[in-house]
Design brief:
two-stranded parallel ribbon; 3-stranded parallel sheet; 53% helix; alpha/beta; 7 helices; 156 residues; globular
Length: 156
Amino acid sequence: ATRMMDAPIQWTFAGAPREVATEVMLSGVAAAGVRVDRVKHVDAEVKCQLLSSVNCLLMPSHATEAAPLVVLEALNHGVVPIVSDRGALREIVDGVGYVCRDLDDYESALRELIDDPALLHDLSQRAQARWAERYTDELFEQRVRDLLCEGGGRSH
């Protein structure tokens, strides 16, 4: 975040940090005069408010999560995901956001979206379309029914 201090970005960090390094980084950003909003407790209502008010989700995770729910929720809200190359994130985000390998990739993605509002709008629309095509509750339920029906005809 400190590399992007000159960018016109309103930073909001949501959730309690799990690492001391995150707290140190946030303190450094705030000390540098960058406005940083913190939301430590995120319940369903707060999450919906946050996702309805942001353009991008920056998720530089070091953990390997198969498909973090927050990324899917971001798609539903038309929030452009900028994520690490972990788990199934590449499959989820490809074509509707950015998959990053390092800090330079994150910075490049943010600068591209700041410099090109039309691209941001296009990716936002594509994110919502991706959600509707692949990740709605109805589609999930149908996939589960299909799997159960396939397994029901097999002999054990």
